[in-house]
Amino acid sequence: MGGSELSTYKVFIQPQDFSFLKSDIWSEEKVPGYVTIQNKKLDIDIGFRGSHIRKIKKKSYQIEFYKPKLWKGAKEIHLNAEYNDPSMIRNKLSYDFFSSIGVLTPSAEHVFITLNGKKEGVYLQLESVDEYYFKKRGLPVRAIFYAVDGDANFSLFSDLDKESKKSLTLGYELKYGDEEEELFLQEFIYKLNTLLRDEFEKEIIRYLDVEKYLLWLAGAVCTQNYDGFVHNYALYRNGETGLFEILPWDYDATWGRDINGKSMDYNYVRMEGFNTLSARILGIPAFRNKYYRILNELLDDRFNVETIRPQINALYSKLRPYFGKDPYKKDKIEDFEKEPDFICRFIEDRNSYLRAELKKLGQ
């Protein structure tokens, strides 16, 4: 879907079905409808998506294709309103960054949405992390888990109520796989919390692709997604290696802003991030040194203004003609115009902060 113009998705929902959908914004239920993309009509089921973002006036949607059952190899897609991000590019910029450093990442592309003939504005279409995602890439998959809340913290204790978890799969939703995969996840979480350091170093490589995890950790630390360490990720078990790998998800609260679009200090998230798995891995000298090398290389080659500013400019050039057509954003163009400089200042400050932290360690 490249090029300088955004694709337009024309969504239609019967008025009574749309009224039903709006009657309970927290419902996971979908209603029938259809979408026209590039003159092709597709029958769909559609519902709201997200957590806190359901309360905002510009809704985000999840679409499941009904007839045909797949569209461009996908069974479902997500349409993110990006309402709280004044730039509307943070999610896309994050996904492109993760992809550039070698982390498996969903594809993301800005589109323009109309709903029942009315302009809804600019959205970010996100690829769903499901079995079709891996099939498109020729990657074997045994299981996919979504980290749906803060209990997906790789700990024996709940991040939400600070008590022992009643189940080690709390915080996770099994998207693909069977009950045996849930047992394997429980075994993984139990062992990473209970093994002594020497045993942990030997055992962890039987469950986790450590190098890929360290790449993801470095990406989350650079972009400073505060929620990204115990939430906002997908965990998949590689069908060939049998090891867990991690994919980023919902990265709009990044690049110096939080989930409400408020400014976040460049040093808010420490260099090691935070969750139990990261703490245990970075407690092993060989893994910790590898992480520091990865981070140092990213600061030199990827996470800097020289590399990222052209990407920001390209995204801005693409969105600018459509921003004024977005009924929810057209009065906020002034804020939109300031964001490239804001993001670049964050990159400079964050880069300097992380370099100073590495220097303290003699890296």
From TrEMBL:
<dbReference type="InterPro" id="IPR014867">
    <property type="entry name" value="Spore_coat_CotH_CotH2/3/7"/>
</dbReference>
<keyword id="KW-0167">Capsid protein</keyword>
<protein>
    <submittedName>
        <fullName>Spore coat protein H</fullName>
    </submittedName>
</protein>
<dbReference type="Pfam" id="PF08757">
    <property type="entry name" value="CotH"/>
</dbReference>
<keyword id="KW-0946">Virion</keyword>
